[in-house]
Amino acid sequence: MTTLERMQRARQVSPLLAAADSRTKNNALLAMADALQKRQEDILAANREDLDAARGHISEVMLDRLALDAGRIAGMAEGIRQVAALPDPVGEVLARVERPNGLVIEKTAVPLGVIAIIYESRPNVTSDAAALCIKSGNACILRSGKEAWRSAWAITCAMQEGLDTAGLPGDLVQLVEDTTRQSASDLMNGVGYIDLLIPRGGAGLIRACTENAAVPCIETGTGICHIYVDKSADLDMALEILENAKASRPSVCNACEVCLVHRDIAAAFLPRLQRRLTEERTARNLPPVQLRGDAQTVAVLGCTPAGEQGFDTEHLDYILAVAVVEDVEAAIAHIAQHSTGHSDAILTADDAAAEQFTRRVDSAAVYVNASTRFTDGGEFGLGCEMGISTQKLHARGPMGLRELTTYKYIVRGSGQIR
């Protein structure tokens, strides 16, 4: 089936889901979750083919993003079940006003219609996106990267089986077969078929979509995430948070890419940070983190210079750019210049510094004394997420069910005329 035919089919079946009640949608989601686990061996076999084809072409960190096992499939199924357990946003009255003439006006949440998602090498996006679309009443068209296509196809087939079992059309969730740029272009230009396009992936993909899409597009931005260690910070806590934020899963968008350190503690803290992320990780048979510093950091540690682009790069690897700053004001200025508006954090015991940071840093998620790795739909109580929006219109931060709805005004009268 061509991409155009898939868009046409999605538009055709979407009204059936928009009219479905919560019980029907929840039953479908539970059936989809069960089908994922029932088809586990098929999914794992497809994933092994993807991994075999990708080895030697993508990094080990990216291979980890691509890899599935029984635990990850169970996690995907559980994510779908969590979405089923969430309140249904469709039909919620967001605002109500009764006018002097007796008209009752209700601003009411409704599905967007058909949502297209272009993503790269994370197979779990397939199930997360489908679950959120079904619960919010939207048909979805998935366009996976070629590295993950076999896995995504097996996952999609399982979910379609679940939809059929629940009495809804399997075509409410579709995967595009074409992984060339043409299919992406078709979705970007699917006017009349696609109500919203969401790209999830690297800077190149996101830029291509936001610059070229003729349909509405949400920018799920890259994550150049910062952690600023203030002079009053608990340094033991700071080491724990920085290792988690950088090294727990460096290939994801909420991983820390830049550490800023107050000049008053730089001489004491930087050597501890280097030991924690290099020698101590190596001793624990964990991948060490390479520190790349500004001039002051290099002077203290003798590490590799960050270079001209070092603070503007989403490394998605065991690499951390480090800079020494004068104070919280300088940290805020550095973040304003280099951040992508995703997630930024301050580690401090100074309430005034924390207040200044949270007021002034203009990112989708701003943290005080916590890891940036929490910027995630599941961690925010959304079940799972469609992506992390770094724009400001319609949706910002982790996108859950509410962000996949729009609204209409339902106006009730008793014969009023104007």
Please, how many helices?
14
Q: Low-confidence runs (pLDDT<50, min 5 residues)?
A: none
- Oligomeric composition of the shown chains: single chain
| Helix/strand order, N-terminal first | HHHHHEEEHEHEHEHEHEHEHEEHEHEEEE
Alpha carbon gyration radius: 23 Å
User: Which structural class matches the secondary elements?
Assistant: alpha/beta
> What level of helicity do the residues show?
40-55%
Major sheet characteristics: 7 strands, parallel
Mean of pLDDT:
95
The amount of beta strand, in percent, is: 15-25%
Coarse shape: globular
Give the tally of β-strands. Answer: 16
State the end-to-end distance.
Answer: 50 Å
Spatial sequence of strands, sheet with the most strands: 10-9-11-8-7-12-13
Structure description:
The protein has 418 residues and is an alpha/beta fold. The protein is 43% helix and 19% strand. It contains 14 helices and 16 strands. It has helices spanning 3-18, 22-38, 40-54, 60-66, 70-85, 124-135, 149-165, 181-188, 203-212, 235-247, 263-283, 295-301, 328-338, 351-360, and strands at 93-98, 104-111, 114-119, 139-143, 173-175, 196-200, 225-229, 256-262, 290-293, 304-305, 319-325, 343-347, 365-368, 388-389, 397-398, 405-412. Strands 10-9-11-8-7-12-13 form a seven-stranded parallel β-sheet, sandwiched between helices. Strands 5-4-3-6 form a four-stranded parallel β-sheet, sandwiched between helices. Strands 1-2-16 form a three-stranded antiparallel β-sheet, with no helix packed on it. Helix 2 (22-38) packs across helix 7 (149-165). The termini are far apart. The model has no long low-confidence stretch (mean pLDDT 95).
